[in-house]
Request: fold
Amino acid sequence: MGRTLLILAVLSLPLACDRGGTPLVPVRDKTATGPLRINPKNPRYFVNATGKAVYLTGSHTWSNLLDRGTVKPPNIVFDYANYISWMVSHNLNFMRLWTAELPNSGNTGDPYENFVGLPWKWSRTGPETANDGAPRFDFNKLDQDYFDRVRTRVIEARDNGIYVSVMLFEGEEWQSETNPNDGNPFQGSNNINGLNCPKTCPTDTALISEDAWNYETAYIRKLVDNVNDLDNVLYEVSNEAGAPYSDSWQRSVITFVKQYEAEKPKQHPVGMTFQWVGGSDLALYNSNADWVSPQSRFPRAQVDKVVINDTDHSYPWADLKRADHLGQRSWVWKNFTLGNNIAFMDPYLVVWPGRNSPTGVTADANIGVNPDEYWETIRNAMGATLTYANRMNLAEMAPQPTLSSTNYCLAHPGSEYLVYQPVGAFFAVNILPGRYQYEWLDPSTNRVALSGMLTVSGGTSSFTAPFKGDSVLYLHALATN
Reply:
């Protein structure tokens, strides 16, 4: 094992940990530019119009488009501007913009599921009433207020460096949240168009009628027209529509969006997220989507698709709590070094016993004012990975598990190495010869504990962090004269 004297000097530093150091300085783009496209040379990442690799990571919450609450109509308006500022303060650059299909799905375990009276995809004209007590839907009249809200929120996100996955449908609701008072637009008694396509019918090619598909595609065209000129847009077909019944429908939606955008000035990535229940990651990888969110907790980067590993599909909140803070940040750093993008299903301001306890509870007893600090660990870890992604030449970085004994190494050999060590122990890294600047990050505090320069003669070098616990080592080659 080759080891230089300077590395040995680093190893001789005291290992006692006072959790000191310098705070990691966030690095982010002030504006989200694009449109994004898959990097043909390194397809685990998107690139923007300038060719810069873009790593996506962020928190998303259910009410970031439609106001939700526990009464009808919700008496708390979601503070989107504050949410965007909060995202920026945590150095996050990605969110899913959640839609909904059922105006009233309040019979579920989610304490925050009531939408009556809000802008919807289709206008509620009546004159008859739907089963939720509000006017029936007219599929021939799209609600302009809904599309205006989508556009305004995507623009505000763009101007703060945030990319937005615009969710087209919320298929999970049709699968598991229908109820006698749900206001489901596709149920015959809730629209004035004579259309009856209840439960999972709108996402099931074997059940959906030509009329229902035509209403869906008219809505998709309107939505695409509404945001096509914006650079920070991605699309998501549906949240967790099940399998295998939605397989063909999702392929059809992806094909339709791509064909429709092909005639327009800009083309944006279209994504497919894990199908619950009955889905498989293989179905995602074999799909015609540009990006996917699998169920695997630690998926390996795919050949031709960007992976956005989202806790909504891969790491249920109860498991995250059992993993506690070390496991939560370890999940983030492991995925980052595996070449995945990362998203957190953030309960944000929802009061949810056992799951989330925001402070400053408001008039609506299930909505708080300040997010639960318990989840700051995973949020801060995501923000730190974005800083390193923006400091590195990410387009050249690839997972190189064989280069480190930790198996978590993102590297451009001879140029840059970022290694995560999940446990407090020495580890080895195979490094090409050269002079490097090194930096030790303590991920439990997001502080740089030690930095300096070292010379490597080549081969395997051993390292031990100058603090206890998990650690991140970043090496960047110095320019030679």
